[in-house]
């Protein structure tokens, strides 16, 4: 928003972001919309001008504008979204946090115990698919009383993945896995709770059927204590329109 103000609009600019994330969560790609009103007689910015100008003013920040598109007046970055895709990166094979590659620090979660039972986690993830009341899988916040707990999970996959610069430590028998979730929208900390519960299944602390039972309880207080995944492994991958 501050970068856009440097473009000298005649009306203050407001950014409307498609999705908010917790502190410590990453975004590979997020979306926003803004209106720029220029002084009379000045032509509207084209997409390329906007891209270069905003990125020039964003140089010191850990953010870059990848694309800019002209949209209709009725478009809204948040409410026009059809779905959002999140990825959670797990690292298996570490017996101690000091074994996490330095390039991966704060970019994944290495759960205690080293390896996880991935087939059990994949079975458990199937219970999350479809439309459910996800009350057990949300943290409470000020918006809770006004938000329906019903959400539709369109995708819940667990796939092997590659690490950043993994060719430098492939001899260490480290395994990266990605949990991918897609839905029109998610509840507060829902993805981190779902990941935490699936990891508990992978550790043998829960059975796959426990995930179904947690859904049926519909009470956030029933969620296992200390099972929420940390924010560092979570990435907003994309917003689909």
TrEMBL record:
Q: Which Pfam families match?
A: PseudoU_synth_1
Enzyme superclass (EC): isomerase
Domain named Pseudouridine synthase I TruA alpha/beta: residues: 124-241
The reactions it catalyses are: uridine(38/39/40) in tRNA = pseudouridine(38/39/40) in tRNA
Q: What is its EC number?
A: 5.4.99.12
Q: Which InterPro entries match?
A: PsdUridine_synth_cat_dom_sf, PsdUridine_synth_TruA, PsdUridine_synth_TruA_a/b_dom, PsdUridine_synth_TruA_C, TruA/RsuA/RluB/E/F_N
Q: In the UniProt entry, which residues are flagged as the active site?
A: 22 (nucleophile)
Q: Which GO terms describe its biological process?
A: tRNA pseudouridine synthesis
Q: Please indicate if the UniProt record lists rRNA processing as a keyword.
A: no
Reading the lineage from the top rank, the first entry is Eukaryota
The question of whether rRNA-binding is a record keyword is answered with no
Q: Where does substrate bind?
A: 86
Matching entries from CDD domains are given as: PseudoU_synth_EcTruA
Entry keywords, A to Z: Isomerase, tRNA processing
Example of a GO MF term = tRNA pseudouridine(38-40) synthase activity
Name the family: Belongs to the tRNA pseudouridine synthase TruA family.
Q: This chain belongs to which protein, by name?
A: tRNA pseudouridine synthase
Q: Which organism is it from?
A: Fregetta grallaria (White-bellied storm-petrel)
């Amino acid at each position: 928003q501050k970068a856009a103000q440097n473009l000298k609009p005649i009306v203050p600019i407001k950014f409307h972001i498609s999705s908010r994330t917790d502190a410590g969560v990453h975004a590979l790609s997020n979306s926003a919309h803004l209106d720029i009103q220029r002084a009379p007689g000045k032509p509207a910015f084209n997409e390329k001008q906007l891209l270069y100008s905003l990125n020039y003013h964003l140089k010191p920040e850990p953010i870059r504008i990848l694309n800019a598109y002209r949209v209709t007046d009725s478009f809204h970055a948040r409410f026009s979204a059809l779905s959002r895709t999140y990825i959670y990166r797990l690292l298996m094979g570490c017996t101690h946090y000091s074994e996490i590659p330095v390039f991966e620090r704060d970019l994944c979660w290495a759960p205690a115990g080293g390896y996880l039972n991935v087939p059990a986690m994949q079975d458990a993830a199937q219970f999350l698919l479809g439309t459910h009341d996800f009350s057990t899988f949300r943290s409470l916040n000020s918006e809770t009383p006004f938000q329906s707990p019903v959400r539709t999970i369109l995708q819940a996959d667990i796939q092997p993945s590659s690490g950043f610069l993994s060719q430098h430590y492939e001899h260490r028998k480290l395994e990266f896995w990605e949990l991918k979730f897609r839905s029109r929208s998610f509840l507060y900390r829902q993805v981190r709770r779902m990941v935490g519960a699936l990891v508990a299944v992978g550790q043998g602390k829960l059975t796959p059927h426990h995930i179904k039972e947690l859904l049926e309880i519909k009470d956030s207080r029933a969620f296992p204590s200390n099972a929420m995944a940390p924010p560092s492994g979570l990435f907003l991958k994309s917003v689909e329109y």
